[in-house]
Amino acid sequence: MANEVVFSQGTLKRARYAIAAVFCVHGAVTGSFATRIPWIQDHASVGAAQLGLALAFPALGASVAMPLAGAVSHRFGARNALRGLIVLWTLSLTLPSFAPNLLALCGALFVFGAAAGMSDVAMNALGVETENRLDRSIMSGLHGMWSAGALIGSAGGTLAAHLGSDARLHHALAAVTLTVLGLAACQGVLDLRSAPDETPPPRFALPPRSALVIGAIGFCAVFAEGASLDWSAVYLRDELDTSAGLAAASTTAFALTMAVARLAGDRIVDRFGPVRTVRVGGVLATAGGLLVVLAPHPAVAMTGFAFIGLGVAVVVPLAFAAAGRSGPNPSQAIAGVATITYTSGLIAPSAIGAVADATSLVVSFGLVTALAFGLVVGAGVLRSAGRDSMQSGVAEAVAERLP
Questions:
Q1: Which of 167, 225, 311, 403 could link 36 by a cystine bridge, Cβ 3.0 to 4.6 Å?
Q2: What percentage of the chain reaches a pLDDT higher than 90?
Q3: Contact between 381 and 325 (Cβ < 8 Å)
Q4: Largest CA distance in the chain
C-alpha cells in the first residue's frame, strides 16, 4: 500500500472504530454458525465422525484462499477489497445450513472457510496499517472485538436454537443483517491503494521466512487456546469428576477471559511492548498449564484455564501486527501467519484427543504447557518488527533495543 498517504487524526480515529466494527461483524458470523452445528448435522444426516471430517474443510478452504487476499487488495484497493470480501463472508453463512448431505456440506464449508480466510487477512492487514499510522497498539482490541462479536453471534444462535428456529431462516436473516452492518463499517476504514508502479503480489506464494518464524509463536498460542476451548469441559468432567454444568461453565469462563484480556491488551502492549507482553503472557500460560496438570480440585483447574486464557489472549493479534511490519508485502506475511495459526487451530483438538487416547488428558495438557513455555522462549522474534519503540518510558524503550 502507498505509505505516502497522510491522514488526519480524526480520520484515523474513525478508521479505528470502523475496522473494529468489521472485526465484530466477522466474529458474529462465526458465532452464528457454531451454535447451529447440531441442526446442520441433523439436516445433512451425518454422524459424529462425518461431521468431524466436514469441520476440517473450513480450515482447508481458508488455507487455500488466504494467499489470494493480497492480490485482491492490490487490484481493488484495501477498502473495496475488504468490502467485497466481508460481503462474501457474511453471505457464505447461509451455505452450510442448506447442505443436504456430507458431500454438499464439505463443499459449503470449504467455501465458508475460504471466505473467512480472505476477509480475515484483508481486515488484519488494514488493522495493521491503521495501527502504524496511529502509532499505538490497537490489534489486541480489534481481536477482542472479534471475540465480542462471536459472543453476540452465539447468543443470537442460542436464542434461535432455543426457539426451535430453522437454521436456514436464522442464517439467512443473520447474513442479511451482518452484510448491511459490514458494508456500513467498511465505509469508514482507510482507503489505501497500491502505488501505480508497485509490483502486484503473486496470486499464490509461499509465506516469507519472517512469517514462518512469527507464525511459530502464533502456533503455540492457538494450540493452547484451541485445546483449552475444546477440552477444558471434558478435562474437568473426566479427570476431576465435576458436574456437566460446572464443566461447561469453565469453557464459557475461558472464552470470556480471552475476550476481556484482548480488549484490555492494547494498553499493556503500549506500556511494555510486544516482547515483554508475550513473555509474561507465556509465563502466565505455563503456570496455568501446570495448575491444570497438577490440579487436585476443580477450582484449581479452572484457575489454570483462566491463566492460559490470559497468557495467550494477545499473542495472535501481536503476531499479525508483527507480520504486517516484517516485510514489503504485509498481506502476504499476514496470510502466512494466518495459515500457520489456522493449521494450529485445526490440529490442536485432534492432537489432544490422540495423546489422551494413548496416555491421558493430563499428559495432553502437559504438551499444552510445553508449548505455552515456547512463548517465553520465542517472544524475542517480535522485536524485529520494531514495535517495541511504542512504550511510555525512555528507559523502557532503550532496554527493548538491547541485543
A1: 167
A2: 48
A3: no
A4: 64
Confidence tier at 59 by pLDDT (50, 70, 90) = confident
| DSSP class of 329 | -
Residue 394: the pLDDT is: 32
Close Cβ partners of 170 (under 8 Å, ≥ 6 residues apart): 32, 36, 97, 157, 160
In sequence order, the 6+-apart residues with CB closer than 8 A to the CB of 249 are none
6 secondary structure, DSSP code: -
Average pLDDT on 302-326 reads 90
Q: At what angle do helices 330-358 and 315-324 cross, to 10 degrees?
A: 150
The distance of Cα 168 from the centroid of its chain, to the nearest Å, equals: 26
Nearest to 67 by CA among 346, 333, 344: 333
Rounded distance between C-alpha atoms, residue 213 and residue 229, angstroms: 25
- Cα 283 → chain centroid: 21
Q: Which of 399, 384, 127, 382 is nearest to 278 (CA)?
A: 382
Q: Which of 349, 367, 214, 343 is nearest to 290 (CA)?
A: 367
Distances (CA, A) of 174 to 170, 288, 383: 6, 37, 41
Compare 126 and 353 and report the one with higher pLDDT. 126
The three cell numbers locating residue 79 = 477498502
How many residues would you count in the chain?
A: 403
From residue 360, alpha-carbon distances to 62, 223, 296, 303, 397 in Å are: 32, 18, 16, 20, 45
Distance (Å) of CA 197 to CA 190, 194, 205, 384: 20, 8, 20, 27
CA dihedral 373, 374, 379, 384 (to 10 degrees): 170
The runs of H, that is alpha helices, within 163-208 are: 167-186
Pick from 23-27, 109-113, 262-266, 374-378: least confident: 262-266
**Strand boundaries in 300-347, DSSP class E:** none
Residue 389 has pLDDT above 60, yes or no: no
Helix (H) or strand (E) segment spanning residue 275: helix 244-294
pLDDT tens, position by position, 190-244? 998 876 666 666 555 566 677 788 999 999 999 998 888 878 888 888 899 888 7
Give residues with Cβ within 8 angstroms of 233, minimum separation 6.
247, 248, 250, 251
Would you give the end-to-end CA distance of the chain in angstroms? 31
Q: Looking at residues 354-375, what average pLDDT do you find?
A: 92
Nearest CA-CA partner of 18 in 138, 154, 117, 132: 138
Task: Retrieve residue 126's grid coordinates.
Answer: 488494514
